[in-house]
Design brief:
Elements lengths: L1 H20 L3 H9 L9 H4 L20 H12 L5 H10 L11 H7 L14 H10 L14
Helix pairs in contact: 4-5
Bound molecules: calcium ion.
Length: 149
């Protein structure tokens, strides 16, 4: 019996850990920092929460980055010693509209649309969203987690 347990536990951990590790660290950090993990309790395993096109042009990620991803890259260039979480927060708190669709990046994050794709934008008026965003804590709610991840 003990032998079977000793065999099964590592296999189970490997199966779980493999899919988690398959998700890039920046994406893991962003999903948790921006509260997207609330969308799906199994987000780490479904892989569907916050697709790569949040920051990248292609669905599979990698280069090139879309305009929001480029804004993050500029944030890193301006503060090379910052953590990804801090850069993400700085860009969102700056209230810019990377894709120029009329909705600031932070509002698009709040509304679950893509801040780097002008064809993706909220279906509610900006003023209404800004009011709800402010009531939910505004950009402060997107500050980097204290764990430093
Ligand atoms: Ca926008």
């Amino acid at each position: 019996m003990a032998g079977l347990k000793q065999f099964l536990l590592p296999v189970a951990l490997l199966a779980l850990g493999g899919s988690v590790l398959a998700m890039p660290q920046f994406r893991l950090t962003a999903i948790q920092q921006l509260g997207y993990d609330r969308l799906d309790p199994l987000w780490q395993y479904s892989g569907k929460v916050m697709g790569c096109t949040f920051c990248h042009v292609n669905k599979g990620g990698g280069a090139p980055w879309n305009v929001f991803g480029q804004a993050l890259q500029k944030g890193f260039a301006a503060n090379p010693k910052s953590s990804f979480g801090d850069v993400l927060y700085t860009v969102l708190a700056a209230n810019g509209d990377s894709d120029g669709d009329g909705y600031p990046d932070a509002i698009e994050v709040f509304a679950w649309t893509l801040p780097g794709d002008p064809k993706s934008f909220p279906d509610k008026p900006l003023a209404e969203l800004e009011q709800a965003f402010s009531a939910a804590g505004g950009a402060e709610a997107y500050a980097a987690k204290k764990s430093g991840k």
